[in-house]
Amino acid sequence: MANGHENRQLPRLPACQSCYTKKAKCDNARPKCSPCMRNGHACLTVSLNGSEPVSREYINELEQKALSLQAGVIDIEPLMNDTEEHSPEDNDSSGPAPRDSLRQVAETTDGRNSDMSLSPNYVEGAGISFMSLLFTDPRWREQNQKLLHNLSKRATILETSVQKNSLPSAEEALIVFNSYLGASHVQNPFLLRRYVQDLYQALFPESLEDQHARASGGRSTEHQLFRAFMILAIGAIPLYRAGKHQYHPYGYFLSALKHLEEGFLLKGLESIQDLLLVSRFGIYYHIGTSIWELIQLSTRMCIEQGLHRCRTRKTPDGHLLEEQLRRRVFWQCYMMDRYTSVMLDRPPAVADKDIQVGFPADADDEELELAGQSGVFADLDSFYRISTVQMDSMPATETSVFLFCLRLRKITSKIHTKFQQKTKGIAEQEISQIELASASGTIYLDLDELLNELESWRVSAPVFSNPKCLYERQEWYDLLLMRERLLIIRKAIDLVPKRNNVPPRDLLGICLEYSVGTITTFCAMFDQGLVTYTRSYFQTLFTAGLSVMFCVSVVEDLDYHTIKSASEAVKKGEKTLKLMVQELPDAVHYVALYEALRADILRKTKNQRPDAVDGEQHIPFDTINQSGSIRFLPDGSVNTENEPPAPDIQHNPPWPILTPDASTNEAQLIQLQEVAIESQQLSWDIFGDNVFWSMEADMLGEYVYGSSAAGHFFD
């Protein structure tokens, strides 16, 4: 009985490092959580800000000591104010408590079965927590109980198996290879263009001599076939989604896995390139493996091979291109690491301060090869310095877009680092009014600095007179700018001191401007078919829409034009989300949530400013979804009954979670599965448990944890 009483007093501990990384259920047990006790692992706290991790056993010792002192001392308030943990009985004390302690007490004693360890992304400074006020209206919650209940479950997902594709004809393969080189390679040149072209020639010889040479030389290697199928898988994505290619990209991916050799991680630089190919494909389709884990592994392999350091030995004559490729591979890993880590508020795989190697040179491969053969340049850095001086007068090169995106990720990394440091500084101590003002000023200073850096970055964008792909278009650069601006302002709003939980008016105005800009820019590009659907784009549009709703709901002095543009933006965002959810059916409940919030916020706004908000115009899903397989009901729930068979492959079938099945090549029937989250997650405090933040697992899961339903890449 005594132990049970003590356990009720002990505060809820966050997920340990092992469970946090593996997305395992971490309980509140001491001195170790059950998974760590079962597996014999050390149970340590997560170190998000570079702080030293602490073992749960040590925490348990301190807690037991505190309980012993509490039982033996009458007046313990001075002692308890020096600790970071408080039991529920401390609420009766008359003395003031530190701000973080009060917040912790509220989280653990408010009567709700809150489990913050299930929401590792829910931290101040992640750029989302301030929107919790959107869900505080009791009337809205009462009216949308079924919707909230649906959000507490795993979203409905489509599972199907796709047959492995064989190599296409030489003509079809040439189109897909050119699609890879003309699109994905422009932003992600971690393979040499020449290598991709030579690989095509090796597998699809044109002349009779080449065909005889291939026949006499034997079959293609397994590694060649793996890479060829991965290039086909990535290159086929835009073609297949536009109805210009008949074979599903996932079929090429399954064929690539068939040719994956047992020691594929033992090939040095080539192994990293192979992991990057899989990771790039995983941005568009479930691969059954965590992209975040793959990039963490790739970056560790880069570090083991010393790619993050300057080479101590002189580059041999004629091998500038080899050094260029090494840098392109490392910085590609860096770029994808920052992309996934910042999106999921995870620590990066390598800190910026530990990177010594410079950027790749802004030059075409042929230019580097000639420069290397000339013997004029001692190494790539000397060539880079000269090319940087001449950059203003040079046309765009093969690496121009890559370097432009890389500079953006450097700024993104700086954003992540700065605001994570602010998170620790503000949350871990009691702050006076003077310190609050100082903290606010520092946040404003950093915000201004980072926004100026983004403006300078946008001005430096390469210009293509005849853009041939998305990555060469100025509209895409505008979208990247808007998205990063919105990320910065949301993080600042999360951390800045608030009055009555409402952020400063000027920051809300900026947030509203950037949110509307993000929605408008993305929707225009989506309508033109310039961008395709991905989970990261869905998350960007979803959070931008919620940001608009939040700003409109808390700012009372918005003018007519601002309210009108905001209302049009959230409606436009809803329409695009409903189009995207046809291909991302596991996101359907989030669209229902968005629609319910949009209707409620705009109704209240119209009551206050009837001149600025048009009459309610419901966007019926049936007018968008021709198959009628998914319908939003008036109560915010979703009807997925009578799911029709998958449409013909030429009509872009709904985006599935595709499950590779090594035991059969026969296409299985599409089946709907709803997996309920454990009952203790079912709470109406959306921002206090994992209900709303299950978007991380459902919508962004493949970036971190992969799909539990799909096969595993390493199996």
Automatic annotation (TrEMBL):
Cellular compartments annotated: Nucleus
Tell me a Gene Ontology molecular-function term this record carries: DNA-binding transcription factor activity, RNA polymerase II-specific
Q: Per its UniProt record, what InterPro entries does this chain match?
A: XnlR_reg_dom, Yeast_MetPath_Reg, Zn2-C6_fun-type_DNA-bd_sf, Zn2Cys6_DnaBD
Q: Which CDD domains match?
A: fungal_TF_MHR, GAL4
Q: List, alphabetically, the GO terms of the cellular component aspect.
A: nucleus
Give residue ranges for domain Zn(2)-C6 fungal-type: 15-45
Q: Which GO terms describe its biological process?
A: DNA-templated transcription; positive regulation of transcription by RNA polymerase II
Q: Which Gene3D superfamilies match?
A: Zn(2)-C6 fungal-type DNA-binding domain
Protein name according to UniProt = Zn(II)2Cys6 transcription factor
Sorted alphabetically, the keyword list is:
DNA-binding, Metal-binding, Nucleus, Transcription, Transcription regulation, Zinc
